[in-house]
Structure formats: structure tokens, C-alpha cells
Design a protein that fits this description.
Blueprint (H helix, E strand, L loop, with lengths): L5 H31 L2 H7 L10 H13 L8 H17 L2 E10 L5 E11 L6 E7 L22 H20 L5 E7 L20 H8 L10 E6 L8 E4 H6 L1 H13 L6 E6 L5 H9 L3 E5 L25 H17 L2
Parallel strand pairs: 3-4, 3-5, 5-8, 6-7
Antiparallel strand pairs: 1-2, 2-4
Helix pairs in contact: 3-5, 3-10, 4-5, 5-10, 6-9, 8-10
Bound molecules: N-[2-(1H-imidazol-4-yl)ethyl]acetamide and zinc ion (ZN).
Length: 342
């Protein structure tokens, strides 16, 4: 797993220290407030939340539809079929669908023919939210316990299809009830074509090829959004989503907002309060290159060596490992966040 460079970590640490100081100051202010004015607490706890509708069966069927095609590795025929299905499915929910076709060079020199697929709601609105996920699947099960599997492609039910399934169900819901702001659902190709763990090829930026392209060549010139949410591995039973380092560096207020909404909806066993180290994922490039503050809802498991989901980059990442309750927790939290934007 890649970590950020020393200066980056230092910057993150500095910002964490600074926010730590702010939290101490803020909490002492609010404590004093409560002492002087006990009514403020009742006003705070009476805060209303309207849970967005979200159909986990529908989201699951969108996940299964993808895995039924087999591994959607970039350049494969299943990838092609999936691209058409994603485009057509988004078109059921919005007339504003764009497909970005482009070539990118993989770490091993292979030219990949990639497609980012974008569905927009309220395309004319200035105030926008970006929702994204990657839809390709990894060509190598390079984390599989069985050596014999390590060059086989994975189904990527969790790593890829789960986030896309949740976003397609969100698109379906947005078609039934329009949000107050604009929403762009961006599905990235070529996220998972990075060099295998057991090869020493030192290639920079070999992951996240679709998001790197989109960040430099957005589907709308000079595209911007208030904030972005990336979904990555959001379907495992009892998944835990921590406050990841890049997200906390670039978009701490939005992380805290989303986690607070999750807690109000009763999902605090999924959206846990721990801060974990920075990882390179599609949101890193969106933050860096497009400067849209973007957070990553990504499964963190402190008990695995990778710190990801236990079947991460293994043949075990299949539809059997997808839990509707987790899709529900993530989908309802994200959509409630979207509907709250005015
Ligand atoms: C790396 O391992 C470099 N990044 C994790 C991003 C990822 C891969 N998400 C899903 N698959
Ligand atoms: Zn992956």
C-alpha cells in the first residue's frame, strides 16, 4: 500500500494537531454555553433528520448484474459489456449521460482503452456534489492466500461493484425525487490496474487511471463541486469506515458532516470515529488535480495485513461477500447528505 511522502504526512500531522487544539477550544466554549444556557442542549438534540429512501434490494441487484458479467478488467470484453450496461442504466435515470473514452498506459506499457461514465442531475445548477466510484475490476488476485490464484482476475463484488451498485440506486432515487442542487455521478475505469504486489516495478501513479484522466479532463470544462464522496468497498458485512487521512486533510468538515449524518441515522457501528492513515485512491487525484474536496468512504479493517477488507484483491471478493445492510447504511447516509444540500 502506498503512503504519502514525509512532507505530506507532516502536513497531515500538523493539521491534525491544529484541529486537536481547535476541538479542545471549541468543546470548552460549548461546555460553558451549556452551563449558562441549559436550553441550548435540548435545541441541539432536537435537530431533525429526514432519512432518504434507499432500496438495498435494488442496490444489490445492481451489484449482482455487474459480477454476473465476470471480472470487468479494463480492455476485456466483460468490461466493454459492462460499460454499455452502465451507460444504458444511467440513461434510465437521467438524460444527461456522458461517456469519456480515452487511452492510458498501464504500469507494464499496455495501452488501456478506458471509459469513464458520467450521469448528471440538474446539469445547469452551479452548486454541485460529486459522487464517484470505480467500475473496473482488478486483473490480479495478488493478495490471494493461494499463490496459484495471484494472476487471475477478480469478480470485484466489493472492490468496484458495491460502490457502483449503491450509486446506481442513488441515481434511481434522484430520478424519483430531484435534489435541490446538481449531482454528478462519475464511474471511473482503470482504477485497479496497478502493478502487482510481488513485482518490483516502481511506476508512479499506476493506479486510478480513470480518475487521473477525469481530474485533468473533466466532463464539463473547469468543472467544480462543493465536495465529493468516493465509495470504495462498501458492501462487506459489518464493514467499518474510518476517517481516512487524505479525506481528513482535504475535506475534514465534510467527513465530519457525513459521519454525523450516519450516526443520526443509527449507522455509527459502520461509520466509526477512528482516524486512519492516508491512502492513494481516486479521491487523492480529485483533491490534488481538480481541487474538489473529496472524501473516501472505504472499508478499513485493522486486523488484516492490507488494512482493507479481508478478501481484498483475492478470489474471495465475490457476490457471496455482499451484505444488503451495509449497502443500505452507505446508500442512505450518502443520499441523505445529498438531499440536505441547498
Ligand atoms: C492502493 O492500494 C495503492 N490503493 C488502494 C486503492 C484501491 C485499490 N481501492 C480498491 N482497490
Ligand atoms: Zn482494488
Amino acid at each position: 500500500m502506498n503512503l504519502y511522502s514525509a512532507p505530506m504526512i507532516k502536513a497531515v500531522v500538523n493539521s491534525l494537531l491544529l484541529s486537536g487544539v481547535l476541538i479542545v477550544v471549541m468543546s470548552s466554549i460549548s461546555c460553558n454555553n451549556h452551563r449558562n444556557n441549559p436550553k441550548s442542549e435540548t435545541a441541539e438534540t432536537a435537530e431533525k433528520i429526514i432519512p432518504a429512501p434507499f432500496d438495498a434490494d435494488s442496490a444489490f441487484s445492481f451489484v449482482k448484474k455487474q459480477t454476473d458479467l465476470g471480472p470487468r478488467v479494463s480492455n476485456s470484453s466483460a468490461n466493454n459489456q459492462c460499460a454499455s450496461w452502465l451507460e444504458n442504466t444511467l440513461k434510465r435515470f437521467t438524460p444527461e449521460v456522458k461517456v469519456q473514452s480515452f487511452d492510458a498506459k498501464a504500469y507494464n506499457g499496455t495501452i488501456l482503452h478506458l471509459k469513464n461514465i458520467i450521469g448528471s442531475f440538474n446539469p445547469g445548477a452551479d452548486k454541485r456534489v460529486l459522487l464517484c466510484s470505480h467500475w473496473d475490476s482488478r486483473p490480479y488476485a495478488d493478495n490471494d492466500p493461494d499463490m496459484a490464484n495471484r494472476r487471475k482476475p477478480i469478480d470485484g463484488a466489493n472492490d468496484g461493484a458495491s460502490g457502483v451498485g449503491v450509486l446506481l440506486e442513488i441515481a434511481r432515487q434522484l430520478s424519483l425525487k430531484s435534489p435541490a442542487i446538481g449531482v454528478d455521478i462519475v464511474l471511473f475505469d482503470g482504477e485497479d490496474y496497478g502493478s502487482p504486489q510481488d513485482e518490483q516495478s516502481q511506476v508512479e501513479d499506476d493506479w486510478c487511471l480513470g480518475s487521473q484522466y477525469w481530474s485533468r479532463n473533466p466532463h464539463v470544462p473547469a468543472y467544480s463541486a462543493r465536495f465529493g464522496i468516493l465509495l470504495d468497498m462498501v458492501g462487506a458485512p459489518s464493514a467499518t469506515f474510518t476517517k481516512e487521512g487524505v479525506s481528513m486533510y482535504y475535506a475534514p468538515d465534510y467527513v465530519n458532516r457525513v459521519w454525523h449524518i450516519a450516526s443520526q441515522l443509527g449507522y455509527d457501528s459502520y461509520f466509526v470515529n477512528d482516524e486512519t492513515s492516508a491512502i492513494i485512491d481516486d479521491h487523492s487525484y480529485i483533491n490534488d488535480l481538480r481541487q474538489v474536496p473529496t472524501l473516501d468512504i472505504i472499508h478499513h479493517d485493522p486486523t488484516t495485513q492490507s488494512s482493507f477488507y479481508k478478501y481484498w484483491h483475492t478470489l474471495g471478493d465475490n457476490i457471496e461477500g455482499i451484505d444488503k445492510q451495509t449497502l443500505m447504511a452507505v446508500g442512505q447516509t450518502v443520499l441523505t447528505t445529498v438531499y440536505q444540500e441547498k
